[in-house]
Amino acid sequence: MSKDRFQDSYDAVVVGAGNGGLVAAATLAAKGHKTLLLEQHNLPGGFATSFVRGRFEFEPSLHEIADFGSPQNKGGVRKLLEDKIGIDSEWMRVPEAYRLIIPHEKSGRIDATMPFGEAEYISKMEQYVPGSRESVSKFVKLCEEVVHAFSYLGRSRGNPDKKVLTGTYANFLKTAPYTLQEVLDAVKMPYRAQKIITAYWCYLGLGSKYVNFSIFAAMFNRYIAKEAFIPRYRSHEYTTALDLKIRQLGGDIIYNTRVERILVENGRVVGVETSHGDIIKTAYVIANTSPHTVYSRLIHPRSAVPERAWKTCNARKVGFSALVVYLGLDKSPEELGLKEYSYFIYSTPDSNEIYDRFHKLGRPAAQATVCLNNAVPDCSPEGTTILYLTTLFSGEAWSGVSPRDYFQVKNKIAAEMIDEFEKALGVNIEESIEEIAVATPATFARYTGAFNGGIYGYEPVPWDSILPRMMTMNEEKYIKGLDFAGGFAFRGHGYSSSLQSGETAALLTHKDLMEVK
Amino acid sequence: MTGKKLHVKIKPLGILDLLSFKNLVPGRKKRIEKAPGTSIDPLPPVNALAGKLHPEIQHLVVDQIKDETGDVRTYRLVPDKEKGTLQPAYFRPGQYLSFTFEVEGATVTRPYSISSTPGEALSGFYEIAVKRYHDGFVSRQIWDHWTEGCAVLSGGPEGFFYHDHLRDRQNVIGIAGGTGITPFRSMAKSILDDDLKINLVIFYGSNKKEEIIYHEELKELQASSGGRIKIIHVLAEEKLENFEHGYITADLLKKYAAPLESSIFVCGPKPLYRHIDRELKGPAIRRKFIRKEDFGEIEDVSSLETYPGGAAGKAFKVLVHRGKEAVEIEADAGESLLVAMERAGLCPPSSCRSGSCGVCRSLLIKGDLFIPEEVDDRRQADKKFGYIHPCIAYPLENLEIVVPRRKIE
Ligand SMILES: Cc1cc2nc3c(=O)[nH]c(=O)nc-3n(C[C@H](O)[C@H](O)[C@H](O)COP(=O)(O)OP(=O)(O)OC[C@H]3O[C@@H](n4cnc5c(N)ncnc54)[C@H](O)[C@@H]3O)c2cc1C
Ligand code: FES
Q1: Total domain count, chain B
Q2: Same domain, yes or no, for B233 and B137?
Q3: C-alpha A287: how far from its chain's center?
Q4: B117 phi, psi to nearest 5 deg
Q5: Are A60 and A235 in contact (CB under 8 A)?
Q6: Reduced to 3 states, what is the DSSP secondary structure of residue B206?
Q7: Any CB–CB contact under 8 A between A321 and chain B?
Q8: What is the CATH number of the domain that holds B146?
Q9: Which end of chain A is more exposed for a tag (fewer CB within 10 A), N or C?
Q10: Of A499, A62, A493, whose CA–CA distance to A316 is shortest?
């Protein structure tokens, strides 16, 4: 390099400018540390970005940010971005929680549009499923307790008072080891209400009998109580605002620069080496990429990776990747008959069966589809619509696809998803497609280097859910000076968790740096 | 929510629940202990697929050179296996490659459509057709220096000028001017390979018969296509039997094809686009059925109607920040900022050179510039925060900008 163009030593280096890395770099820079953020792509954001096709600008991954809250009722993420970091970004409220369609439910088609707000949610459910009020209220309250317990755990910085836990948060403790399905059965929720209340399951990528209850509860409460928001000009708006903020705070960012090695000596980080051959000294690295990638590709020498680190990786399962069909349509949402923002369409009612099917390359059994204009009316030109249809796939499902088959395979799946959407809603979409782009696991791997295209962190099964991760965080730190941020960090995937994980990693690094200084 | 205290029991465990909680940590440790301590594949299958589809660079070698017309040559390029490129990346007919060149001390890029087919990439080569311009900075260099065995550097296949059966009609009208025929050659040959299932009518505008590229080959493609491919040559400066004379007009399209039942793809020099826009004006054809390839750099920016008066012919100073370093360069009003930087030897990143790919994205700190609206494909937030695409930005006064380094230097 270009020694003259960048410094050759930093207090901390952040690898990757995704949600986690941007917040980590901003937080460190704000604390006055000499911070360098390195990103292989030419844009900030990772998955949190945007792309343009013709007269449409698409949102690549975000459906809605949880724990954001309105300006009057701020959630953790809004506080983080607006109050703590202070970025200039505009946010739009998502109008409803979701519309869920399960066309082939045995007891009859389910088609339920659910509102935000706990009381509103419970009442609406009672309309759809008479007699559900009691169990649904119980469930909603339980979710609220889980969130309070998590914030208590956060406040106690790893030293919770046992009495408080067993007293105030007893239900949290009792439910923490269980799956969502076990808790649904415990509160005796009617079957159809269970189907409706678990609709968000696909955001976690684990069926109800696999997913840990606490993590579902936290997500459910944060959406329903705090509503959901999205950026006015796609995720590229706030990630660019974060970039500008980091520079303003004195941090450096270098794009088009991949970290090839994290240099380790005597069990601790001493620097990084980049694709341009830059060698940068630092004692602290925050990796906004998975432990899988860091241990298998980046740590140098490889012998610095202890056996226990491999075991930890091998014990965990990398979560799903996705296939997204982005459509720019040349009719307005009204003309197309699209009234809602967020649609969950489950071709078969059983989330566990769908989960299993995501491991194979067949017709998608589920989709989460967003009509962006219904939250951001002018996101595309007058008389047009942006619609994106998302389904999940394991990376392995795509492992047999050759470059030659690739375009055909992805377009076939795209066609099936469009067909499913059209049938579920009784609308015609295909006729109006002016722009189409289809992203697959390979696309996500291409742009972010994500391990096997994984976008969903590690699967939050009960033994590997946030709570046990939190409780073992220190002993699972295998290389001194190395921390993780982003979807593969302890908080799990999703925008809100990834963003907040960046803050946590930065604060831990800050603590260490202050001790050293 | 408030109300009476909640009490949840998980059947059938009941009071054992707290015990399970206590077991979370030991249980986790046991899981980890039991797992194999083997290392992980650093290149899992999906990342490997991504690398094959979208290599960051392709090391190629000129394998064959063929004269097509007086000023157009086909270059066949094969992978440079010694340098690590084993196979040309697969692509969709209509995509392009961005090549990197060292010319007179400057590092510059140029996009060229792939004129060969995806099937041929699988069998080991790409072809591009390069027209030599007398004052061309790079095309001249190619003609003069690309000899057989010469090493060439490109990126992966890029661009969106391809047929998509979910969006486009099966009947396609291709409108080509000059070297704009190249993506259509790829499409036509792919039809014969059965890799592209469309019917293609190509309207190909040239000045004179001798300037037609692939003349014989196109004839053969048509003859062996069983009606799936039809070529209509339109000569602007000659009147010959079996050739249309003049320009490609709406009436001509109707004479040989069904423009209202087709998707129309246009590729050629900028004047062709303006001409076709006028011909196809009117509400009859939905925007989705007309697709235009990027046409690259704007040749004479001050001739655009929207160009503000006053700056033409002037030269400005641009302070370019790269990392901690700042360099002052000269920029002429008539050249894009990208070119000004390349000229100054700064090696800024670029690919499409048409405003659409965003690879050159840079931050404008100070000063005013001209960005023609019709090629301004920036993201909305980039407009809000002052980011620009230097390949289509023209200085109107002294400027200050921040430019990223290239991905590969
Ligand atoms: C289709 C889809 C739909 C989703 N829907 C939602 C939703 O509605 N709501 C929600 O909350 N979440 C959703 N998610 C999940 C969410 O997007 C991710 O979990 C989250 O953005 C992950 O953030 P991250 O911090 O891990 O960053 P990533 O986006 O993974 O970014 C990592 C960054 O690091 C860079 N990098 C990696 N390695 C290196 C290196 N060696 N050197 C330099 N740079 C490097 C990458 O280029 C990238 O910029 C969705 C995801 C997808 C893809
Ligand atoms: S090089 Fe593609 S936008 Fe400038």
Answers
A1: 3
A2: no
A3: 16
A4: -110, 165
A5: yes
A6: strand
A7: yes
A8: 2.40.30.10
A9: C
A10: A493
Predicted structure pTM score: 0.94
ipTM score: 0.95
User: Which CATH number covers residue B220?
Assistant: 3.40.50.80
In the three-class reduction of DSSP (H, G, I as helix; E, B as strand; rest coil), residue A506 is classed as helix
CA A433 to chain centroid: 28
Number of compact structural domains in chain A:
3
> Are both A239 and A219 inside the same structural domain?
no
Answer yes or no: do A256 and B404 touch at CB < 8 A. yes
Structural tokens at position A49: 């970005």
pLDDT tens, residue by residue, A339-379: 999 999 999 999 999 999 999 999 999 999 999 999 999 99
C-alpha A499 to ligand 1 mean position (Å): 10
Q: What lines the ligand 2 site, CB under 6 Å?
A: B 350-353, 355-360, 389, 391
Query: Which range of residues forms the domain containing residue A188?
Result: 117-226
- A 29-88 near B (Cβ less than 8 A): 40, 42-43, 50-53, 55, 57
Identify residue B274 by its one-letter amino acid code.
Answer: R
Range of the domain at B371: 301-402
Please indicate, yes or no, whether residues A293 and A369 belong to a single structural domain of this protein: no
- Same structural domain, A468 and A427: no
Query: Quick one: which of B91, B76, B71 has its CA closest to B136?
Result: B71
Q: How far is CA A431 from CA A327, A410, A418, A425, B289, in A?
A: 11, 19, 11, 15, 11
Q: Confirm whether A100 is domain-assigned.
A: no
- Which among A405, A221, A286 is positioned nearest to B1, based on CA atoms? A221
pLDDT tens per residue across span A372-409: 999 999 999 999 999 999 999 999 999 999 999 999 99
Name residues of chain B where pLDDT drops below 70. 1-19, 283, 409
Cβ pair B24:A144 closer than 8 A? no
